[in-house]
Amino acid sequence: MQLIRWPKQFDVMVTGNIFGDILSDEASMLVGSLGMLPSASIGESGPGVFEPCHGSAPDIAGEDKANPLALILSAAMMLRYDCDRAEEADILEQAVEAVLDEGLRTADIKQEDDGCKLVGCIEMGEAVAKIVSTVDSAVEV
Asked: At what angle do helices 69-81 and 121-133 cross, to 10 degrees?
């Protein structure tokens, strides 16, 4: 109930798998779609597993309909929490925010008469990649 009433009070939630699935479904409605939610399973040692909450979306595989933003944001989480690369994570997160600010929307987050452009997975991913490629960063690899 608190997740829906006041979501900003939560930064990280630690739960078991089934309860985590329930909460992620609820949280997806706060942002409009599971296609916007990154996910991480991080243990005490070893690398974490980072993936979009929506999984592989086999029902729309190969149709250029999936929203790639959750996967991109999952990669940002991996950079931040597993690779200690906060600057690179910030770049990915800012690029996602920028394409949304430009009005690009995949079908799962597009609303009727919202003035936004409907794009597929490929175009959305390319838009994020274009922004990331223009970043002039002094990041050491």
From this structure: 40
